[in-house]
Design a protein that fits this description.
The protein is α/β, with parallel strands linked by helices. The protein has helices spanning 48-51, 75-90, 109-121, 132-139, 180-195, 201-210, 243-267, 270-279, 293-301, 314-322, 332-343; strands at 2-3, 8-12, 16-21, 25-31, 34-37, 42-46, 61-64, 67-68, 71-72, 92-93, 98-103, 126-131, 150-155, 160-166, 169-176, 197-198, 223-230, 236-242, 281-284, 305-307. It has a five-stranded mixed β-sheet with strand order 4-3-2-11-12, with helices on both faces. Strand 3 and strand 4 form a beta hairpin.
């Protein structure tokens, strides 16, 4: 099938990557994981297939996350993964696509250039950048062009971005490396300390998704069986974990996220604080799926807090809506060169 032109929006996060194709919606949703052969540097598997190999690879194969804390940590692997994803959704096209990339509000110039270069290497004709907080607000149905303040808390896999958005831009923001993976690490530490049992990241993630919560669930206390290695004997061991045990465990990283929220609120101009009280706080990202995190934010701030309908793909849906405005945006390379000139 020959495609003449199709613009693409990509949210490449620490844990997952979503690709939105204009006219089609979200075409791909894959874990941001690649399996690499260490001997020749070749990418063997990507996405769901690569995630299955985590902790199960032979000595010559390593499964890695090319995105760390929301930015590119392994350029070559990121470029290869982007090339594979773009190739899947474009097929054979007469024209290279224009690509809109979601980036954290705290991204540096060097990290911004790496994103642009990786997208161009993946086959982009032009690359545009949008801050994830702005895309999330738009995905949640907010009219970002108005002079009206909205707070967005995007809890991803590696970072949490807290930002106040107004007039299509970010007024105040804070980015911390406490997010979904921090909840997993907290569970691993707890199980290790209480049960002398070493579990992997995938097991911890399953616990978080299935029975993890920050506020008590309305139903009866759930129990899940886990398997790992006994730290004393070195042999396989099984233990049972209850949902009530994990509440205090998950509250520890959640409280650090609350600190970032309060820090942004303290720096927000008084005029916008009134808007936030009226408009509420928008919570999105895979980490926001931990039960009760929106209630914890609302209880701590006193501001109505809303969890978006599709937390994982909210930002890419917002970026997808912005594809119709690409003709009015300046491409990322021009922005990069202009910012560098201003600094010089």
């Amino acid at each position: 099938m020959v495609i003449y032109e199709r613009d693409i929006a990509i949210d490449m996060g620490t844990s997952s990557t979503q690709v939105f194709v204009q006219g089609s919606g979200v075409a791909l949703r894959e874990p941001t994981v690649v399996a690499v052969d260490k001997t020749n540097g070749k990418m063997l598997k990507m996405g769901d297939e690569a995630k299955k190999t985590l902790g199960r690879t032979p000595a010559n194969v390593v499964a890695i996350h090319p995105i760390n804390s929301g930015v590119i940590s392994d350029y070559d692997m990121s470029a290869m993964m982007l090339t594979e994803l773009v190739g899947k959704v474009t097929g054979f096209s007469l024209f290279k696509p224009r690509i809109l990339m979601c980036v954290p509000s705290s991204i540096t110039g060097v990290e911004e250039r790496a994103v642009i270069d990786a997208a161009i290497e993946a086959g982009a004709r032009k690359v545009y950048l949008v801050e994830t907080a702005v895309a999330t607000a738009m995905g949640a149905g907010v009219d970002i062009t108005k002079a009206d303040g909205h707070m967005v808390i995007d809890i991803g896999g590696g970072t949490t971005d807290v930002a106040v958005v107004s007039m299509g831009g970010v007024v105040e923001c804070e980015s911390i490396k406490i997010a979904g993976s921090s909840f997993d690490e907290a569970i691993i530490r707890y199980v290790k300390k209480k049960y002398n049992l070493l579990i992997g990241v995938r097991t911890a993630e399953e616990l978080k998704i299935n029975i993890g919560s920050i506020e008590p669930r309305p139903l009866s206390d759930s129990i899940q069986e886990i398997k790992g290695r006994d730290l004393i004997t070195g042999l396989p061991k099984t233990a049972e974990i209850s949902a009530s045990e994990l509440i205090d465990v998950l509250k520890e990283p959640a409280n650090l996220i609350l600190e970032a929220v309060h820090a942004v609120l303290e720096r927000t101009p008084p005029e916008l604080i009134g808007d936030l009280a009226d408009n509420g706080i928008i919570v999105s990202g895979g980490g926001s799926l931990v039960y009760g995190i929106d209630k914890l934010v609302e209880k701590s701030t006193g501001i109505h807090t809303m969890l978006v309908d599709d937390p994982i793909a909210c930002s890419v849906h917002g970026a997808g809506k912005m594809l119709t405005r690409l003709d009015f945006m300046q491409d990322g390379m021009m922005n990069f060169l202009r910012n560098r000139e201003m600094k010089n």
